[in-house]
């Protein structure tokens, strides 16, 4: 068994911050979901 502090040492946190500002609305005639799918395609 691992102690709580040992388990915390194993946690890998990768913080991603986009340089693009958050858009208030999706692209014309689209949705945020579709925009994300196209972006990650």
Q: Which terms would index this structure?
A:
41 residues; mainly alpha; 2 helices; 0% strand; elongated
Structure notes:
37% of the residues lie in helices and 0% in strands. The protein has 41 residues and is an all-alpha fold. The protein has one domain (4-40). The model has no long low-confidence stretch (mean pLDDT 85).
Strand and helix map with partners:
Layout: H1 4-10, H2 32-39
Q: For the CA atoms, what is the radius of gyration?
A: 18 Å
Q: Which shape, going by the Cα principal axes?
A: elongated
Strand content: under 5%
Intertermini distance: 41 Å
Sheet bearing the most strands, described?
A: none
Count of strand segments: 0
Task: Determine the oligomeric state from the structure.
Answer: single chain
Give the total of domains: 1
Stretches where pLDDT is under 50 for at least 5 consecutive residues are none
| Rounded mean pLDDT score | 85
- Please state the structural category: mainly alpha
N to C succession of SSEs: HH
Helix content: 25-40%
Count of discrete alpha- or pi-helical segments spanning 4 or more residues: 2
């Amino acid at each position: 068994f691992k102690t709580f502090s040992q388990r915390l040492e194993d946690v890998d946190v990768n913080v991603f911050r986009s340089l693009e500002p958050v858009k208030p609305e999706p692209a014309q005639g689209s949705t945020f979901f579709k925009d994300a799918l196209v972006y990650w395609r």
